[in-house]
TrEMBL record:
Organism of this sequence: Pseudonocardia ammonioxydans
Keyword Cell division attributed: no
Keyword Protein biosynthesis attributed: no
Record-given protein name: MFS transporter, MHS family, proline/betaine transporter
Major facilitator superfamily (MFS) profile domain ranges (all copies): 1-202
Localization in the cell: Cell membrane
């Protein structure tokens, strides 16, 4: 009887799968913050008018999305590990300033605060997909990437708006969700630090 791809991959590739799961936390938490939570944060928590909140979110998404391929290209030139570490450490440093800007109110401050958060998110979106694939040989790539990434998405992405809202209620602070971003980055940082550089290396068969 042929062994299932899942069992084969788990047996031979559990270390890179564990690394991918650890690296994914910062990706999941930060991306769902800017894509799923920020608009509710501006409208409900900060009480911004829709005619201010929606355009600021739109501008931030357009600018942030445009930066994604640029960061992917930079990782081709300077290495995946280096660019991802810049994004992770940058998120630790700028998570609270980003929320402080959004909490200030007004279109300019709200947009600027989102862009501060979008810079590391654009790095992650541009670099992580290739990095994930390069962790595994061809025969194990689909299962090796798919299983831990799905677990990370289920555990960290979908829960980000809920946990961010709960943190605000627990602390009575509108900038408290920044601590959740910092936590995600701190958890992922050791996994990124130990990452083997794979940019421009031949894919394993």
């Amino acid at each position: 009887m042929t062994e299932s791809p899942f069992v084969t991959t788990m047996r031979g590739q559990w270390r890179p799968m564990a690394r991918l799961l650890g690296m994914s936390m910062v990706f999941s938490v930060s991306s769902y913050t800017v894509l799923a939570f920020v608009v509710s944060y501006l409208l409900v928590v900060r009480g911004q008018a829709p005619e201010v909140a929606y355009p600021s979110v739109l501008v931030a998404i357009l600018v942030g999305s445009a930066a994604i391929p640029a960061f992917g290209a930079l990782s081709d030139r300077f290495g995946r590990r280096r660019i991802l570490l810049i994004g992770c450490i940058g998120l630790i440093i700028f998570a609270f300033p980003g929320y402080l800007l959004m909490a200030t109110g007004g279109f300019v401050a709200s947009t600027a605060g989102q862009l501060v958060l979008w810079i590391p998110v654009a790095i992650f979106c541009g670099v992580f997909p290739a990095t994930f694939c390069e962790l595994f040989p061809t025969g194990a790539r689909s299962t090796g990437v798919g299983v831990p990434y799905a677990l990370s998405t289920a555990a960290f992405s979908g829960t980000t708006p809920l946990l961010s809202t709960m943190v605000i209620e627990w602390t009575n602070s509108d900038i408290a969700p920044a601590a959740y971003l910092v936590l995600g980055a701190v958890v992922s940082l050791p996994f990124l630090w130990g990452l083997r550089e794979t940019a421009n290396a031949a894919l394993r068969q």
